Amino acid sequence: MKQYEYLAKGALRDHGIPIPPGRLVNNPEEAAQAVADIGPAALKAQVLVGGRGKAGGIRFAASPQEARGVAQAMLGMDLKGYTVERLYAEAKLDIEREFYVSVTTDRNKKVPLVMASLSGGVEIEDVDDSKIVRQLVNPRVGVLPFFGRQLAQKLGLDGVLAREFADLVVKLYQIYRERDAELVEINPLTVVNGHLVAADARLNIDDSALFRHQNVELIDEGSELEKKVHKIGLAYVELEGDIAIMANGAGMAMATVDAIQYFGGKPANFLDAGGGASVEPTAQALDVLVSMKPKVIFINIFGGITRCDDVAKAILQVKNGSGIPVPLVVRLVGTNEKEGVRLLEEAGISAYSDMAPAAERAVALAGEGRS
Fold it and tell me: Active site includes 100?
């Protein structure tokens, strides 16, 4: 779960890491007031993409009047496929140097990893590997002050910057642990008037740990349908075709998309109903597919944890409720398969046991609907 910059900055502030004065703004008047209060500022689009500056997502304003005009131009703009709905007004910095520092997880070593570089302000992937310092963390010990001092020494820092950097690394690791983060990054970590200030920040929280963080603001990017399905707790991506798809498991959903394309069809979406979704969320997800008004709906279930009779009950709940006004193709095999097939057949719905003929039938029906 990626967090917007202003949320990541809030985490830094809460742990005592210096950040520039700033505030979230939702309209041109708030932007003007922000600049009136904090002085010349950078207006930064709050979208979850990299390279905002080059794409026009970071602009400067020296006066309230200028801020009003800049905000009018930025709010509502398309930035790499995302609509800018909010800005973060942050005091403009007189930057002397730029560094990079982050805490992430080394998936090969299966331990936390701290990375730092004297080359900040650019994507870390663009920095020569020889200019990046990496230091693995013993999770039983964590990051203590000596760890930060070692890292500062490897970077060649001394004096005030070395002390501040060592302290910052300890606090950054605290955020990583407390927030169950996959990544905490400051880029650039700037030097302003001889002291360290975090000019930009990223915070990605492990989705699997969100139940432990009820106060985390959930970021729900995407179309209205995507947002609706995400609220149900299922994975959904909107595509451009006319055959709506539901499958259980990300691998099965991807295989279903591939099968539809193999037979010449165009998937309208990717919907992973999960490995054990119950009747109600499955029915809610099917309702969403119906609302898309596709040519055909294709439900492809290989039941393991997922029970085929639960899927059948969800289908019948929608059919007998709001209705399914388009052709429905169902492939149902696995746990409680006989009961699921029986329930569907009693309602006049046939179920396939193999994916290929079911996908081919869905494509054929979509073709008839287009003719």
Answer: yes
